[in-house]
Task: structure prediction
Amino acid sequence: MVLNDEQKFIYASYLYYWLDVSPMSDYEYDMLARKLLGNYDSLTNEFKSRVTREDLEAGTGFMLKYTEEEIFNASDWADSLGLL
Result:
């Protein structure tokens, strides 16, 4: 499964905060948040409407609300990694 960075952030946040599953290390998650923050102006408007600069600075996706599609895709990703 090939994911873009926005998807990785959202899916990893769901898995970590709701299923207690870590598809990446804390360091990798923090580096992903920093990468997204550094490219914030070029991110999709849909992503920016849900994830603020402050969220990325703090390295958290705790407050995100997830669509059914995101929940399914995050679970599928975790399954493909052997985590579920």
User: Anything to note?
Assistant: DSSP finds five helices and no strands in the chain.
